[in-house]
Specification:
Helix 1 (5-24) crosses helix 3 (42-63) and helix 4 (68-92) packs across helix 9. Strands 2-7-6-1-5-3-4 form a 7-stranded mixed β-sheet, with helices on both faces. It has a two-stranded antiparallel ribbon with strand order 8-9. Helix content is 43%, strand content 10%. With 545 residues, the protein is α/β, with parallel strands linked by helices.
């Protein structure tokens, strides 16, 4: 077949249509175009169209190259990148981009769960990618190869243009063909790896002894308004309701971000909303809560029920362990321990530490109710039905909510029953409890439920927040009205409980949980806490139903 300019133009149009309809979706393409045109400028629109066109054309150069090696290498890479892109889009609803590459890097340990939970969507992405690559391969055999191997080096400047463009747009526009978008986004995320260094030293000293045993429990994926303790008509926390007078309940609080890594590093380092996005990396250099605890004379514990093999997550670095006396992971203590029993092993450990004669500070990352929800509780604990299985891909909101409610009843209500029955007033223990973020189950219950960067709902930052005061040291404090507090008040409260001066705390870290904030608007951050890629500060709205 003799190739003509018309054939090349038709192929270019075909590949462009595939990019816009399959990789981007027409609705997304329309949004991108009108966003650039009306919120930026005509020049920005022309720039984007130029980059999009040249990245599509460069693939044609590789596909129709005379070098067999170049053709096969291109098709192999195209399949890989397209498969990853489509898998992510089918799961989350939007394209794999820079912020998602960062999230994926931080959550690689969940790959088995993702594969199990999204097997159908991953299969569809695999089949679609394979079919497209097969059609292109077939087409390339029908057309006499037109481009020389030397012309394939057009890839180098195209790659440089793409990197420059993604950096320039700060992740706002991540809609290029998957062949470029996936490796460039991933490469940039790797290149922007955060520096790991020493934290600043604590210069303040406590002015009082502080509580004997202080625990911060950060749960996983618990929506504050999903607890019947906070008004949910479904009885997800019946035990907590019976002992509600024994805790100081701040109701529904606002998480500082809608993702695990951002919220945890903020809670650990005392970041305030006004400091976000944290482009100066203060969360990695300012003194951690462990440092303040050591300064106040505590034996420090870090308990991570989510991971094993001493792996670290949520931007915690090996240097942070210099201020941790005991790093404990239930998965390491007992490799045969069922996943849904890890939190109960944590409860057992906390009860034991509450009896210690030493001053003890503990930071806990619970297993909580991370998807797939069905694996976070035993079948015998199924109260609400019908439910999803651990590998179900049924798009059923009712089943998803029931499964999630069962997870809450087991991992929150059951967990606290173990604690309350094991820790007595004589143990002089104060526990601050919250979650890293909430869950958005308003859709089909299967699509992305948190850490979204597009059309984010406030419920993703909707978390519980309360204090169990077995020591009765907080009896002299006035508790503000509920549903006004946020994560940024947790760090100052911990310092107060460790014995630091209220004046120092207020001037350095802001308000504690015992200071009235009124109806002041709360905010949370979406995207990377360090400002890499697209970030947005959104108002947190919660109305008691």
């Amino acid at each position: 077949m003799r190739i003509t300019k018309g054939h090349l133009l038709l192929l270019f149009i075909l590949m462009s249509i595939f990019t816009v309809t399959v990789e981007m979706r027409p609705g997304r393409a329309y949004y991108i175009l009108q966003f650039i045109l009306f919120r930026q400028s005509v020049l920005d629109l022309l720039l984007y169209l130029f980059v999009l066109a040249i990245t599509v054309w460069s693939q044609q150069v590789l596909l129709l190259n005379r070098s067999q090696l170049i053709r096969y290498l291109f098709l192999s890479l195209l399949f890989t990148f397209l498969f990853l892109s489509l898998s992510y889009r089918l799961i989350t609803g939007y394209n794999f981009a820079y912020a998602d590459a960062q999230t994926a890097q931080s959550n690689l340990h969940f790959w088995r769960a993702a594969l199990q939970n999204y097997v159908l969507k991953i299969f569809i992405a695999f089949a679609t990618s394979a079919l497209w690559v097969f059609l292109l391969s077939l087409l390339s055999r029908k057309i006499r190869f037109s481009y020389s191997p030397a012309q394939a080096f057009v890839l180098a400047p195209i790659l440089l243009i793409s990197i420059w463009y993604v950096n320039r747009s700060l992740g706002v526009i991540d809609d290029l063909p998957a062949f470029y978008r996936v490796p460039v986004s991933t490469g940039l995320a790797l290149a922007h790896e955060l520096p790991v260094g020493e934290r600043e030293l604590v210069e303040a000293s406590p002015t009082s002894r502080g509580v004997q045993h202080l625990f911060l429990i950060v749960d996983e994926s618990i929506t504050g308004s999903s607890l019947s303790l906070n008004g949910n008509i479904v009885r997800t926390t019946p035990y907590l309701e019976t002992i509600k007078d024994s805790i100081i309940n701040f109701g529904v609080a606002s998480a500082i971000t809608n993702n695990s890594a951002g919220s945890n590093i903020a809670l650990m380092s005392g970041m305030q909303v006004k400091d976000l996005p944290d482009k100066e990396r203060k969360a990695l250099t300012s003194p951690s809560i462990f440092q303040y605890a050591k300064q106040a004379g505590y034996i420090t514990y870090f308990v991570d029920a989510q991971l094993g093999r001493k792996a670290l997550q949520n931007y915690m670095s090996p240097s942070d362990l210099n201020y941790v006396d005991h790093f404990i992971q239930p998965a390491e203590l007992d490799p045969a321990l069922p996943y849904f029993m890890r939190d109960y092993k944590v409860a057992e450990l906390l009860v034991k530490l509450s009896k210690s004669e030493q001053k003890v500070f503990v930071y806990v990352n619970k297993v909580g109710a991370h998807w797939p929800y069905a694996r976070t509780y035993p079948e015998t604990a199924t109260v609400f039905k019908p439910v999803l299985s651990t590998s179900s891909m049924i798009k059923d909101k009712n089943r998803s909510v029931n499964t999630y409610n069962n997870a809450i009843r087991w991992t929150v209500d059951g967990f606290w029953k173990e604690l309350m029955q094991g820790i007595t007033p004589a143990d002089s223990t104060v526990i601050v409890y919250t979650s890293d973020h909430g869950q958005n189950l308003e859709g089909d219950g299967i699509s992305i439920t948190h850490a979204s960067t597009n059309e984010t709902k406030p419920i993703e930052a909707n978390v519980p927040l309360w204090i169990m005061d077995r020591s009765n040291v907080l009896s002299g404090y006035t508790t503000p009205a509920p549903n006004q507090q946020s994560h940024e008040q947790v760090f100052p409260t911990l310092l107060l409980l460790q014995g630091y001066s209220p004046q120092f705390i207020k001037s350095t870290y802001g308000s504690t949980l015992f200071e009235e904030k009124g109806n002041r608007q709360r905010y949370f951050l979406t995207g990377d806490i360090f400002g890499r890629g697209k970030t947005t500060m959104l108002p947190f709205d919660y109305t008691i139903k």
